[in-house]
From TrEMBL:
The record marks 154 as: Transition state stabilizer. Residues 45-342 form the Amidohydrolase-related domain. This is Amidohydrolase/deacetylase family metallohydrolase. The modification N6-carboxylysine is found at residue 152. Gene3D superfamilies: Metal-dependent hydrolases, Urease, subunit C, domain 1. The keyword Ion transport does not apply. Keywords: Hydrolase, Metal-binding, Zinc. Zn(2+) 2 binds at residues 152, 185, 208. InterPro entries: Amidohydro-rel, Deacetylase_Atu3266-like, Metal-dep_hydrolase_composite, Metal_Hydrolase.
């Protein structure tokens, strides 16, 4: 059914209309549509649909993934990228059972490790050279070009052990061969984070960019932080990837104050982080706002920026003929205690409160996921 959206404050768009028209096919229309349902957004902000560049939604295919709906529209997110839950051995299942039937738009970073995250960290996907099958990986990429948006490698000691930087180098080579970006998880060594930085090129993504792990953080040395800033200026994309172990308030606050703003805000949502301390995208956005990222930058980092990686509309999303893809939300005063991944606390005085999403002509309610016991 066609829609007319009214009484909203546009943000993150190139244009600032007072009304938005959506036709029966779910596309933005230039003029009112006969018989359209009028939807009063009650003064809420309206942005391009929120996009989470780092989630784990291969539910049933890994031991940590959540259902796509738990990461998606019920909490205000209309598009997402699964960040390496599946390698070549199980990608067909992720596609058939998660990506294709989902209401949300889902893309995926293919794990360079064949088994992906089937038993996350208990059975590392990058034990040695037998963990990677380049021929099969290339075949899966070619068969799924429409949904694979990049290659994922977890370059940290708990995964690669003494293999060090080698898996990341192999993943980078496969990314180069297939003309795809590399998303690299950084954390505890080996390899050292500067070893990872040395192999990256514009369009590649550093996820967990504001982690607080000793010897795995961009704040470890002055030179390393400057290298991170230089990389960002050259077009390497810094992604939050909060997760259960990879976001630190001080690292984020100091880095933003010193001129390094993240490209994208993502949750790294999985079964453990969803329960605590991440909860959802709205809470993650509010944390970034609280540590000094300006409101407009927060919106860009959850809309235009990550959506561009997935090949989706962003600030141009009100162009007639494009599929409607919006999130309506409020920013309200609050007093909410939250944690980073190291258990440090902060009280948020403003909170993002999603109200609804629009995908095509389908409108659905949305709300922040409340912490257990509230």
């Amino acid at each position: 059914m066609a829609l007319t959206l009214t009484n909203f404050t546009p943000t993150g768009f190139d244009a600032s209309p007072s009304e938005i028209f959506v036709d029966d096919e779910g596309r933005v229309a230039a003029a009112p549509v006969d018989g359209a349902r009028s939807v009063d957004l009650k003064g809420a902000y309206l942005s391009p649909g929120w996009c989470d560049l780092h989630v784990h939604v291969w539910y049933g295919g890994t031991d940590i993934s959540v259902r796509a709906s738990e990461a998606g529209r019920p909490t205000g997110v209309t598009a997402m990228a699964d960040a390496g839950s599946a390698g070549e051995a199980s990608f067909h299942g992720l596609r058939e059972y998660v990506i294709d039937p989902a209401s949300e738009t889902i893309r995926a970073f293919l794990n360079i490790g064949s088994i992906g995250l089937v038993a996350c960290n208990r059975v590392p996907e990058l034990i040695d050279w037998r963990s990677i099958d380049i021929d099969r990986t290339l075949a899966v990429i070619e068969a799924n070009r429409d949904v694979i948006c990049g290659i994922k490698v977890r370059a940290s000691g708990v995964i690669v052990g003494s293999w060090g930087i080698t898996p990341a180098k192999i993943a980078k080579r496969v990314a180069e061969m297939t003309n795809l970006p590399l998303m690299v998880h950084v954390g505890e060594p080996p390899p050292l984070i500067d070893e990872v930085f040395d192999i990256l090129s514009p369009g590649d993504i550093v996820t967990h960019c504001f982690n607080g792990k000793p010897a795995g953080s961009i704040r470890d040395t002055t030179a390393l932080f400057q290298q991170a800033k230089d990389l960002a200026e050259r077009g390497i994309l810094m992604d939050i990837g909060h997760g259960g172990a990879s976001f630190n308030f001080k690292t984020a606050r100091d880095s933003i104050a010193d001129g390094l703003r993240p490209f994208s805000i993502s949750t790294d949502l999985h079964q453990h982080s969803m329960a605590r301390p991440v909860y959802d995208m709205a809470t993650t956005l509010a944390k970034l706002l609280a540590v000094g990222l300006p409101f407009d930058d927060c919106i860009r980092a959850v809309t235009e920026a990550p959506r561009s990686v997935l090949g989706l509309s962003g600030s141009n999303g009100l162009t007639p003929g494009l599929r409607a893809d919006f999130t309506a939300f409020d920013l309200e005063e609050a007093q909410i205690d939250v944690e980073d991944s190291q258990g440090n606390h902060m009280v948020l005085d403003r909170m993002f409160e999603p109200r609804l999403t629009v995908l095509g002509s389908d409108l659905r309610p949305a709300a922040r996921r409340l912490p257990p016991g509230t």
